[in-house]
Every structure is written in C-alpha cells, then in structure tokens.
Write a structure and sequence with these properties.
Porin, ten-stranded antiparallel beta barrel, seven-stranded mixed β-barrel, alpha+beta, 8 helices, 19 strands, about 40% helix
Length: about 450
C-alpha cells in the first residue's frame, strides 16, 4: 500500500512539473519583453558580431537594460534595446559595443549625454560610435603586422634558399657569396704575399714600441697633435650639448617630433588598447556547486560536486562528480568453453566508486538545453528559470538503453544557498523503484572564490 502511495505521489509530481514547464515554454514563445516595462530605443550599426539577444546594456559598467531584438534592415544591423524604468537618458546619448571576454562576447555600453540636455521620454534612435579600443580593432592591427612579417619571411626564404636576386636581400646575399669566393681565391693565390704583409706589420709594431720608449722629438710632436684632437672633441661635445638643449626646447623638426603631444597621446592609446586586450581574459565566470539530496527510497544521501565555466550569457560548460548510494554497476561477460560453449553475464556493484558528469549547455532566454555525459551515461536535460533566476524547473534523461529520468525543482533561498526537491529514477531503471528526494546546496561564485583566496594567502 505504501509503495503504491509513493508511486502516486511521484507520478503526480511529474505531471505538475511537466505542466509548469509546458506553460513556461508557451510564455517564452511569446517573446521577451512582452510584459516588461522600460523604454525601447533603436541603434543602427554596421557590424553586430558578438552581440546576442538578452545580453546586457550597461552605463559605466552597470547593467541598465538588455538587447531585445537584433534584425537586418537595408544591409545594416538594427538593435532594439529596452532600458529599465527609472534610468534617465538625455539627448546626446550614444552607444558603443564593448568586449566582455576573450571568447568574443560583447555588450552595448551607453555614454550618457549632457545632464543639461532634455530627457528622452520615448523611443529614440540613439547615436553610435565605434570603440577605438575594441578587441576586433586590435586583432585587425595584429593581422596587418602578421601579413607584413609573413611577406618578409617569404622574401627572406626566397633570397636565402633559391638565390632570388629580384629583392635587395637576395642581391646582398649574392654579392656576399661572390665576395667570399673572391677572398678565398685571393688568399689561396697570394699566401706568400699575405705572410710578407704580416711580417711587415710585426716589424712596424716593433719600431713603434722603440719609438715610444726613446721619447724623442717626434713623439712629443705626436702627443701635441693628440691633445689638439682631444680639444676638438671637447668642442664637438659642446656643440652636441647645444643641439640637445634646442631639441628639449622644441626647436627644429626633431624637437617638435619629440615634444609634440600627439606622439605621447598615440603611445598612451596603444598602451590602453593592450591593457584592455589583456583585461578581457578576466571576465570568465567560474562557480563551484555542492549539494546533497536525501533519497527517501534508500534512506541515504546522494551528493553532487561540480564546477561551471560561463564564457558568455548564451552558454556554459559543467564538470562534476556524483556520490550515488546505489553505487556503480559494472557488467562483465565471460565465455566458458567445455563440452559446450556458453556466455555468462555478471553484474557487480561498487559502492566506493563515483560517477562523472560533463555537460555543454545552451541558453535561450530563460530556457536552457544541455547535453553530454550525465552520471557516466550519455544524456540530455532541460531547465527553465523564473522569478529573476531564483526558481528553476529541470528534467534530465540519460542511459537510454535502460532509461533513467529525474525531475526536480530548485529555489535560491539566499545568495549562494538553495534548496531542492524532486523525483529520482522515475522510469524505474535497472529494476529499482523510483524515489522522492529533497536537499540543499551552496554555490560559490567568482567573488566568493576571490575572498577565499585572499583569506588563505594571509
């Protein structure tokens, strides 16, 4: 009697959860923003690459709205953004496209107009300006440099490999080859003469040594000439000092080039672009999730530990391990030979083993489809969230040979703390009865991990 009552409760829970998901899916099909507030503005751009619907619209790095729709009109991208109620925009407000991370995600950044201007109290076509420090701009500049280096390497390879004389490098290498060959011929044919030259140089150095040791009038005259040379060098250094003073004052072409603010501004812009390029790699969102579920059928806990990496609003990757009280079942097949050959299948259950999960998920507004490995088996899942991401309905199915289905509801009680309840093994997979469960968990985000790292460092 108790088993039938439990099955009735589990079946009723599945019907309720499926009905809610179907109703929420219908609401999603009506389109985002149908019942939302705020004002919709329009932005026309040449390239909307990297933008997706429902991504953020920010002012000074703070989210103030979202992208409601992206469409192609007359060969240009028309972006409709919905700005939250209470956000006042003035005339002169323009939009930029900013990069969120190194994987290509971008968002709309609004630069407010002067606060003395009139308020935009209705839908308006906002102005747009290209972002000078965007990742795409830097990638284009790097591409040009790469093309130049590739062309240089190609010419150098032709000059050194096949002796191409159509380029300057090829002609220089060819001339050097001819010169070394001529030097080899000269030294080989004139060894005796070269030896004589060496002997003459040796004799000259001996005479010079004797000349310096004697200290006669010729040496004094030579020393006087050397002092004159030093005096001239001193005058040259004075002239160089005067030239450097004029350059420092900005006189002449060289002085204007060094002291011109345009040169300094260009260097600063280059440094800012490099800093922005490096900084985009920090925006990856990483979270650690641990939760435990009490299984009413087996009177034991099922534990989950996972790591989620979110490179953008429209997708995430999840890796996890599961400690299942039912254990890990392994099937082995043994062939026995004798008077007759037979095959014996044996199943063993290991209770000290863990199961693994590896998923890729794609978000469509509040609707998420995920797939991959679920508890050591291939599977699929569907999530739907409401109440500003606080309440989530989920259904997962895996091991399609002996179908395993679990459905649950998860509610965020506080920031990082949630409770969950649902039904496990609803299809009675592997001959095991379905079980209801309830539990709780904790979620650590990027900010939480930074705080923990700072505490550990002390």
């Amino acid at each position: 009697m108790g088993s039938k009552l439990l099955e009735f409760k589990v079946g009723l829970l599945v019907i309720v959860v499926t009905s809610l998901i179907a109703w929420m899916s219908f609401k999603v099909s009506e389109g985002p923003g149908l019942f939302g507030g705020g004002i919709v503005h329009t932005i026309n751009v040449e390239d909307a690459g990297g933008l997706i619907e429902r991504s953020a619209v920010k002012i000074a790095g703070i989210k103030v709205g979202l992208i409601e729709k992206i469409e192609l009109v007359d060969g240009r991208a028309r972006i409709k953004v919905r700005i939250n109620d209470g956000i006042n925009l003035h005339e002169g407000t323009v939009a930029e496209i900013k990069a969120d991370g190194i994987l290509g995600d971008r968002h709309i950044e609004l630069i407010p107009g002067p606060i003395t201007g009139n308020l935009l109290d209705g839908p308006t076509d906002l102005g747009f300006r290209a972002s000078s420090g965007s990742l795409a701009t830097i990638a284009e500049e790097v591409g040009k440099i790469t093309d130049s280096l590739s062309e240089f390497a190609k010419n150098l390879n032709k000059a050194t490999g096949v002796g191409d004389e159509e380029t300057r490098i090829g002609r220089i290498i060819s001339n050097l080859e001819v010169l070394t060959k001529d030097l080899t011929d000269i030294t080989g044919a004139n060894k005796s003469k070269i030896n004589k030259i060496v002997d003459n140089v040796n004799s000259l150095t001996e005479r010079l040594d004797n000349f310096l040791a004697d200290g006669d009038g010729e040496f004094s005259q030579a020393w006087s000439d050397m002092r004159d040379i030093i005096h001239r060098f001193d005058n040259t250094m004075k002239n160089f000092e005067e030239v450097s003073y004029k350059v420092n004052k900005g006189n002449g072409t060289l002085g204007q080039l060094i002291n011109d603010d345009t040169t300094i501004t260009g260097v600063n812009q280059t440094i800012e672009r490099v800093n922005e390029f490096i900084g985009t790699g920090i925006d990856l969102q990483t979270s650690i999730d641990y939760h435990s579920e009490f299984m009413t059928e087996s009177d034991r806990n099922k534990n989950y530990l996972s790591v989620r990496i979110t490179p953008g609003l429209d997708r995430y990757y999840e890796l996890g391990i599961v400690d299942d009280p039912t254990g890990v079942t392994r099937t082995t097949r043994t062939t026995v030979s004798g008077s007759s050959t037979s095959s014996v299948t044996e199943e063993k259950t290991f209770f000290d083993k863990v199961k693994f999960t590896a998923l890729f998920a794609k978000n469509y507004h509040d609707f998420t489809i995920k797939g991959g490995i679920i508890e050591n088996k291939g599977g699929l899942g569907v999530d739907y969230t409401i109440l500003n991401q606080k309440l989530r309905f989920s259904v997962e199915a895996f091991d399609f040979k002996d179908l395993y289905i679990r459905s649950f509801v998860r509610y965020n009680v506080f920031s990082g703390i949630y409770i969950t309840a649902g039904g496990d093994n609803l299809a009675s997979s592997h001959g095991v009865d379905p079980s209801a469960f309830f539990g709780a968990g904790i979620l650590l985000t990027n900010d939480d991990l930074k705080v923990l790292a700072s505490k550990v460092s002390f």
